[in-house]
Design goal:
With about 300 residues, the chain is of the alpha/beta class. The protein starts with a strand and ends in an 8-residue tail after the last helix. It has ten helices and ten strands. Strand 3, helix 4 and strand 4 form a beta-alpha-beta unit.
Amino acid sequence: MNFEKGRTGVSSDRVAALVADGSLELKTIYYDADKTEQWRELVKNRQNCLEYAAKFKIPHLVQLEPHDGKCAIVGAAPSIKNHLDEVKEFKDIDLTISLNGAHNWLVEHGITPRIHILFEVDLEKVEESTGGPPHRDVYYYVCSHCQPSIFKQLKGYHRVLWHCFDEPPDYQALVARLFPGEFMIGGGFVTFFRAINIATILGYRKFDIYGCDCSYEGETVHYEGYHNSSREPKMIVAAGTKEQYRVYNTTPSLSFLASEFIRFCDTNNRGLDIRVHGDGLMRHLHQTEYPEQYHLK
């Protein structure tokens, strides 16, 4: 599996033509994921948030035994509009987790996600994550390092507290002191991986992933009407080998997410049943690496 860098602002067909005639050389993308120093700087800033969260008498994340339930993780990629009927098929015994603005999109289309995860340290308003007002039937899993304003805005709603894993020993010691005996959820710097890990803690092993393409068609990275527009530079990548590859429109962070997803699966996938829906970069990479996950069942 390779990621090959193309040219920003050039169509996918044009990239393929440039590669074919030899005028564009494909080069593998390497990602530098070491953000540990930046997170160490946040430890002191997060201490007040953790101490504030420790005062709340709300349920905390608990570990459940593995079971046969299915979990749908729903992101906000433009392709989500193509999977509305599939998501509606998930029953009450299954679990639907919304990521970011997919929460509001699902609610507006008659689907109430069971869980919405709030993770970002700098999140100041719930609507910045949900894309719209909170819903009384949703369980909001709020990370203990979130700002106090998030807990206050969700007063009267279902709230569940969880803790993220971070490497600095002083941060881990702080969580252990404030929340003795509770575990921390790993997953890097995006909500997507935290969602999978939280669902795994809740006993889920079967995952259907929608609206998490890590690529896009047209001009927008998210579905039409998404409340935040990406300020990242757009880029084109070719996924595969020099002899056989597909070209996708993406951004640096989305392509990195797709790369990290494959690393996650290499570590965990043998115990999980994961299928990515759609025709995006993440689906292409995952199906190439794990074709057995896509056999008819």
